[in-house]
Amino acid sequence: MYALLKLSICIFAQDIKDADLAGFWYSDNPQILKREINNYLDSAKVSPLGGEPIALILPHAGLIYSGKTSAYGFKALEGRRIDKVILVGFSHRVDFDGIAVSSYQGFRTPLGTLTIDKELVEKISSAHKKIFTYPRAFENENSVGLIIPFIQVFF
To answer: What's the DSSP call for residue 97?
Structure first.
């Protein structure tokens, strides 16, 4: 499953996916959530990388289980210019043949809304018949949902 995101501060679109995990896998209080993520980021000490990272492989368990590891991944990006973030996850609950991309305009967490680059979604979707929008794949799915608050705080 792909979730293509464009970093942004505000959004005026109507079709926004609310976080399924807020209040369960991480705090639904924006101040607490931001503080927890910043604490993980502040604690992560990462040696400089020998090259340019092209991907991060991050866990997606509850924040108390995966936050420390995710923070190390994000800290490896510190000081680097990142123009696009492409989230790749898998479907825990829905079986389908292909790659689902998000049809949402954005993903909302307690920290705000992260907008999706619809032009990039269309470009990727048109690359192959097995890449298609499939909203059901994103219902009650956590494989990318734990990463979005980190993106919002880190960037």
So the answer is: S
Taking the C-alpha atoms of residue 116 and residue 58, their distance in angstroms, rounded to an integer, is: 20
User: Which tokens go with 14?
Assistant: 């109507």
Three-state secondary-structure class, residue 18? strand
**Number of helices and strands (H, E) in the chain?**
4, 7
d(CA 52, CA 31): 32
Most confident stretch, 4-13, 28-37, 57-66, 113-122:
28-37
Residue 141: per-residue pLDDT:
83
Question: Per the structure block, which two tokens stand in for 79?
Answer: 């000081």
Q: Give the neighbor-by-neighbor strand order of the sheet with 112-115.
A: 16-18, 106-109, 112-115
pTM for the structure as a whole:
0.85
Q: Which residues on neighbouring strands pair with residue 85, listed in sequence order?
A: 5
Sign of CA dihedral 78, 79, 80, 81: positive
